[in-house]
Design brief:
By secondary structure, the chain is an alpha/beta fold. The N terminus is likely disordered. Bound molecules: zinc ion.
């Protein structure tokens, strides 16, 4: 998994054991004589589905959404490659067997590669709220950023503005709850860390995208600190709350490596000030508040539905 070739965030979707480094190697081994023929099999162009899209560049790497699923989740990634151009080329290469619906350059330019009705291959082995086929229920956005292995620069403001506008449009065309705008690391916490703790989830939330509460302050005090190896009811309670939010875990009461990974992913998204995988008071309080606020949003939505039904029946 070392080197600059592979997209660190992307895995082959259909083949569990087909690692991205292998994809990269396979891609590299396509000979100069065979490559043009392969590329000629790429999908025909389609109209852009969003006015913020600057270019449509179809990739052949997509399929049917399984079980008639419609997208109800947005999954955000970083490319994890040194160059954006290289990452885009890889996403459009049939040999890579990876893709996403959209690609956002550092300067905010947006390319659409897969129609929203189709299943792009970006999530890999993943889980969220009982769902294991994340590709079938999500729209994937690749955000150009070299990632943790290559210096992990800040996301430029223009790029974040573009991602926000793109997500807002996706939300008008699909029914996507705020708490289902997620990081790749949320759905694959033991494998992925993108788009990472520098991604400004709070900024997106301020523009109507995603779920966010002000993180509880870090610092000393505030109850027990839970860490790797701990056991007991407090660990089980934390695990249950993480599962309730959607994370894939087993509530076994042991702070195992899976729990550490999920807490780390949670912190990257919701408490980015400190990423250490420790279940401290700030992490636990932030999670409790997220659950409480999500419940309140649901209650308001349920009341709106009741009101609509009353109007229809009157
Ligand atoms: Zn990713």
């Amino acid at each position: 998994m070392r080197g600059g070739w592979q997209l660190r965030c992307i895995d082959a979707m259909r083949f569990v054991f087909f690692s991205s480094s292998l994809c990269a190697r396979a891609n590299r081994l396509v000979s100069a004589t065979t490559r043009p023929n392969v590329i000629s099999m790429s999908s025909p162009a389609f109209p852009a589905e969003s006015c913020v899209v600057a270019e449509v560049r179809p990739t052949p790497n997509h399929g049917e959404r399984k079980g008639g699923k419609r997208p109800d989740m947005i999954l955000l990634h970083y490319t994890g490659m040194k160059s954006a151009a290289e990452a885009l080329e890889r996403l459009c290469s049939p040999a890579s067997e990876v893709s996403a619906h959209y690609f956002v350059f550092e300067d905010g330019r947006i390319v659409q590669m897969v129609q929203e009705s189709r299943r792009a291959w970006h999530a890999g082995v993943s889980f969220w709220a009982g769902e294991t086929d994340i590709n079938s229920c999500s729209i994937g956005i690749e955000i150009a950023n070299p990632g943790h292995d290559f210096g992990y620069p800040d996301f430029p403001k223009r790029q974040i503005a573009a991602v926000t506008a793109l997500c807002r449009g996706i939300q008008t065309r699909n029914t996507i709850a705020p708490a289902r705008v997620l990081a790749h690391s949320d759905v694959a916490p033991s494998r992925k860390q993108d788009p990472g703790e520098k991604f400004p989830w709070r900024t997106l939330h301020d523009s109507g995208v995603g779920h966010w509460v002000e993180p509880a302050p870090t610092g000393k005090g505030g109850g027990a600190v839970l860490a790797l190896g701990d056991r007991g009811d407090a660990v089980a309670a934390l695990q249950e709350r993480l599962m309730q939010y959607g994370y894939g875990l087993v509530a076994n009461g042991t702070y195992d490596s899976a729990t550490h990974d999920v807490v780390t992913a949670f912190q990257r998204h919701f408490r980015p000030e400190r990423i250490d995988g420790i279940g401290d008071a700030s992490t636990r309080a932030t999670l409790r508040e997220l659950l409480a606020q999500r419940g309140r949003v649901r209650t308001i939505a349920a009341r709106a539905r009741d009101f609509a039904r009353l109007r229809l029946s009157s």
